[in-house]
């Protein structure tokens, strides 16, 4: 059926849909699709039906997780000790994509969440090439930061989240699609707004019970907006892909970026359609742009709101490292910015994006070594926020300490987890105790690029600007909660004063 017809004939459909809704409300509480019986206690049991729990979860997910911590049948929240056993299990047993499909409602939003080509190119081309392309990124950062923050030699209010979003899209775009197109408004629109539209549509879809979503999708404007966004993005991207292919086939010199690396490896992954490659670019932006922006915004808020007195120390570190590396922000130079790295990791520790990590669907019954059964069909996750604020692991866990990981790496403070290698406390390091970037075979492959980019931007900002909270604002800007996501408040402003070269 033509979806447009459904929209124009909405009135005629209201009666049958109303009937379906009532039917669903009566039937659904006795159905619990996707759940499987386990020996675990159930969070929200007191609410009565699974439908009531679902609705309560949409309203108060963070609270529900905090209250439950180790309960719930729909999602089994396991203690982190089990993760070592689970982390390397194949996707045929413990599956990350199916868990994501549910969150992002891919069946209706049309997202192709299984993208081995993209994952491969990130792992083997992007990360591998970072040392080689870093000077290009560094130049892009040097151009983009003043372009968006200005060069005002007086205190100026800036909405930093908004600016970072554009900066991250442009700087990432230099590597994703190349310097000719990374400032093109069509690229920026696609790389930023596709994610916004996708999350909006998925969130709206989840408000409808799963049985009526096939109909509900036609009545959700954000779902239409998403499909329109995808159409527009492809209209722009497909000809770019075609041109790139033509260059390659003609044996001419080709650009050195993600798009070209993807085209070069597309055959190996049986991706022959240009539209699919264009879509892969969109999925790349989805994985990369907002995640990096949110993380960088948190760090900025923490630096000025939680440890402004340490900013001169971090700036000194950056300046010293630069001087020792011929004023070039090489990979080695970024590695040596250890106080900055520690402040970033501390910021990520204190600003978890959600209460749990390691969201996976169990595909086949798993019997853990202590006899615990994870039944096929169940969804699992492990606590994240609670682990990162556990006083047994972190002294004064609710205090922002920019030196926390710096001191452990330098051997000045005892390592509470006794890792053999203290480099495990770098921003990019993942462990079961810190899943900021996930854990196991599906841990974020883009974290090396993200860390690189955030450091390049922050180092440039801290060298060239004095920054502070607006007069009269005390402490750090509080985060906001949307369903189960915790985000930095995107509406807030901070003060910038340019102190760099003319
Ligand atoms: C600071 C920024 C970022 C954060 C906090 C972040 C976080 C995460 C997390 C938590 C996961 C899930 C891991 C798991 O389930 O075990 C993930 C997966 C992923 N991330 Fe990131 N990410 C960031 C930046 C990026 C960037 C820049 C890229 C691409 C260049 C990227 C690409 C991916 C991909 C492709 C996956 C899926 C991996 C798989 O399925 O095997 N991420 N990320």
TrEMBL record:
Keywords: Heme, Iron, Membrane, Metal-binding, Monooxygenase, Oxidoreductase, Transmembrane, Transmembrane helix. Its cofactor is heme. The chain crosses the membrane at residues 12-31. GO terms for molecular function: heme binding; iron ion binding; monooxygenase activity; oxidoreductase activity, acting on paired donors, with incorporation or reduction of molecular oxygen. SUPFAM superfamilies: Cytochrome P450 (SSF48264). Heme binds at residue 444. The keyword Ion transport does not apply. It holds the Pfam family p450. InterPro entries: Cyt_P450, Cyt_P450_CS, Cyt_P450_E_grp-IV, Cyt_P450_sf. Belongs to the cytochrome P450 family. This is Cytochrome P450. It comes from Microdochium trichocladiopsis.
């Amino acid at each position: 059926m033509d979806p447009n017809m459904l929209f124009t004939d909405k009135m005629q459909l209201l009666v049958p849909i109303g009937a379906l809704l009532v039917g669903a409300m009566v039937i659904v509480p006795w159905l619990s699709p996707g759940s499987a019986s386990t020996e675990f206690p159930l969070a929200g049991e007191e609410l009565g039906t699974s439908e009531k729990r679902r609705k309560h979860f949409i309203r108060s997910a963070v609270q529900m997780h905090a209250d439950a911590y180790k309960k719930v049948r729909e999602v089994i929240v396991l203690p982190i000790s089990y993760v070592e056993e689970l982390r390397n299990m194949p996707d045929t047993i413990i599956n990350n994509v199916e868990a994501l499909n549910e969150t992002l409602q891919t069946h209706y939003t049309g997202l192709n969440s299984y993208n081995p080509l993209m994952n491969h190119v990130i792992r083997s081309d992007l990360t591998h090439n970072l040392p080689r392309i870093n000077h290009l990124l560094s130049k892009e950062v040097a151009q983009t930061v003043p372009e968006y923050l200005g060069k005002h030699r007086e205190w100026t209010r800036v909405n930093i989240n908004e600016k970072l979003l554009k900066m991250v899209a442009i700087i990432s775009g230099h590597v994703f699609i190349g310097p000719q197109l990374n400032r093109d408004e069509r690229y920026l629109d696609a790389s930023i707004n596709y994610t916004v539209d996708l999350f909006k549509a998925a969130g709206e879809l989840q408000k409808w019970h799963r049985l009526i979503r096939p109909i509900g999708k036609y009545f959700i404007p954000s779902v239409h907006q998403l499909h329109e966004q995808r159409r527009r993005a492809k209209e722009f991207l497909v000809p770019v892909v075609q041109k790139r292919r033509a260059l390659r086939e003609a044996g001419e010199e080709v650009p050195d970026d993600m798009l070209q690396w993807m085209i070069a490896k597309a055959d190996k992954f049986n991706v022959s359609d240009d539209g699919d490659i264009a879509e892969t670019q969109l999925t790349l932006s989805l994985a990369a742009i907002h995640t990096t922006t949110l993380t960088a915004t948190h760090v900025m808020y923490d630096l000025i709101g939680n440890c402004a007195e340490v900013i001169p120390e971090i700036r000194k570190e950056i300046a010293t490292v630069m001087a020792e590396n011929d004023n070039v922000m090489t990979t080695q130079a970024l590695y040596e910015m250890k106080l900055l790295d520690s402040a970033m990791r501390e910021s990520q520790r204190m600003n978890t994006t959600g209460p749990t990590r390691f969201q996976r669907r169990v595909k086949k019954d798993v019997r853990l070594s202590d006899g615990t059964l994870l039944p096929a069909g169940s969804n699992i996750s492990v606590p994240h926020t609670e682990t990162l604020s556990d006083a047994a692991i972190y002294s004064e866990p609710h205090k922002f300490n920019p030196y926390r990981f710096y001191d452990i790496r330098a051997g000045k403070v005892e390592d509470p987890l006794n890792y053999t290698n203290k480099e495990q406390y770098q921003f990019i390091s993942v462990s079961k105790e810190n899943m900021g970037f996930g854990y196991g075979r599906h841990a974020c492959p883009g974290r090396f690029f993200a860390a690189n980019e955030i450091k390049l931007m922050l180092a440039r900002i801290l060298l060239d600007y004095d920054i502070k909270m607006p007069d009269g604002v005390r402490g750090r800007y509080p985060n906001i909660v949307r369903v189960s996501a915790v985000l930095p408040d995107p509406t807030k402003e901070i003060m910038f004063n340019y102190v760099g070269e003319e």
